[in-house]
Design brief:
By secondary structure, the protein is mostly helical. It contains 7 helices and no strands.
Amino acid sequence: MNNPFEQLGIRPDLTIAIADLDRAYRAAQRSLHRSSDTRNRDQEQARLNHAYRTLKDIPARYHWALESLLGGGTEMETPPDQDFLFEMMEIKEELESLSATEDKAPLEQLSTRLSGKALEMEQQLAQELNASLSVPQGARESATSVDPGLLQRHAHWKYLRRLAEEAKRAMAPPTTPSSTPGSP
């Protein structure tokens, strides 16, 4: 499995700032274009682009990290536990209820709360994954010994992140179709 961090010449860190990622990508592109081997340049450019897209997209970045830890062939999708799903269903109902009201202040509070909780969960997940990724691949234990709680927390984070995004969309003013010139 290709390591997008290695391809861009940077140390694995799931909390990498986008500006640092952009700099590493540009540096890798410059290095590639200075290379005298033009036969593989298109393939290498495609690999760099894929690595950059993977790391720029935060969910894809975390997905890669989990796949890397699991060896790539292991089932990654772990359904959230029942208590968490009930909590998310209650929040979803609250979100739908608040979306139907004129007063957007409670919706904004819910959105802020969900975003904060998702960010907190993301930071914890990044810390755990970074610690695991810092162990050299040969020294890592087998995929069967990966903490199942890590997969569970990843699934929870994905659900929470989706709900936070949904709450932000619900706060956006509705779009109205534009009228054509000359119409009443």
